[in-house]
Amino acid sequence: MTALPTKICVFCSTGNGNSPAHLEAARSLARAMHANSIELVYGAGTSGMMGELAKTLVALSGPDSVHGIIPRGILRYERPGATVDEIEPPTGILRRYLAKLGLGGPPPQRDTSALLRESEYGRLTIVQDMQTRKKMMAKEVMAGGPGSGFIGLSGGFGTMDELMEVVTWNQLGVHNTGVCLFNVEGFWDGILAWMDHAIRTDFIRSEAHGIVVGKTTPDECLEWLRAYRPAGHGMNQTLEDA
Fold it and tell me: Apex CA 79: angle with CA 71 and CA 160, to 5°?
């Protein structure tokens, strides 16, 4: 029986930050994932830290090692030159209207991988909206082998939203994998301090403390995810409930 591949979903910025340490952290994480035969699930960005992470791993492990998931509404921003209309043939009412104009018939067979730059940034899945993307990312991780989980590199509001959602899903019992903050130059110190304060003031249960931790090297992140064991919070929700 073939062992399931370890899959890690990484949340991070499409920006560079003002220190070269952030881009280098993305590259170093990709190198560590390659060395451990780990597959990447990510937000499909091609710029900044997100793009650096994906293209570094693709260069080392090949396009099948990376799966980008993107909402259709932001496709044109993350894959310049590609639009949903170019990727997905017209269907339904539009197909029938085009047929009346003599423009119908089967859609042309096209290889869209070049348009989507899959040879540089990995396989791409286009979804309807942000929430569908987050659920698909979680499903990929949940279907992975030992050591699968989530890693947060430096980022802004979007990164924080994604991280807090998967932390909450762990607490609700939706998944049982850990969430590790790759803490580059103390970027996550404030969040880690807030979490400790929220536990001390009884707004987060103490048993939830181990859901998310901060580590300062890629190897520490991967080792912690391999060793992670869920504490159990008495809930057993599903992604359909989320």
Answer: 50
Q: Is 136 exposed, middle or buried (0-12, 13-18, 19+ CB in 10 A)?
A: middle
- Phi and psi at 16, nearest 5°, equal -95, -25
Residues 6+ apart with CB under 8 A from 79: 44, 46, 70, 115, 116, 117, 124
- Lowest-confidence range among 92-106, 153-167, 228-242? 92-106
Q: What is the pLDDT of residues 155-197, one digit of tens each?
A: 999 999 999 999 999 999 999 999 999 999 999 999 999 999 9
Determine the straight-line distance between the first and last CA of the chain, rounded to whole angstroms. Answer: 32
The CB-side HSE value for 5 (13 A sphere, CA atoms) comes to 15
Can you tell me the distance from the alpha carbon of 146 to that of 165, in angstroms, rounded to the nearest whole number? 22
**What residues contact residue 30 under an 8 Å CB cut-off, 6+ apart?**
40, 52, 53, 54, 56, 57, 60
User: Using an 8 Å Cβ cutoff, are 175 and 166 in contact?
Assistant: yes
Tell me how long the chain is. Answer: 242
Amino acid at 22: H
Does residue 90 register a pLDDT over 50?
Answer: no
pLDDT, tens digit, for every residue of 8-20? 999 999 999 999 9
